[in-house]
Q: What sequence folds into this?
């Protein structure tokens, strides 16, 4: 599980965004306590994801 200090704003992530049915590709905009504000790459919409639901893109390919 990631914590606030481990989030790198320069890379993209896969995340389970609140209100979305599946993992989506996101860019982190802001890091908050236990959550992040993200931009959904496919739609440009802003959303919120829990830190525990955030996975760096390179890790999803391995899993």
A:
């Amino acid at each position: 599980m990631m914590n606030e200090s481990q989030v790198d704003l320069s890379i993209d992530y896969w995340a389970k965004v609140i209100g979305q049915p599946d993992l989506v590709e996101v860019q982190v905009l802001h890091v908050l306590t236990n959550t992040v504000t993200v931009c959904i790459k496919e739609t440009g919409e802003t959303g919120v994801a829990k830190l525990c639901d955030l996975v760096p893109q390179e890790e999803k390919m391995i899993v």
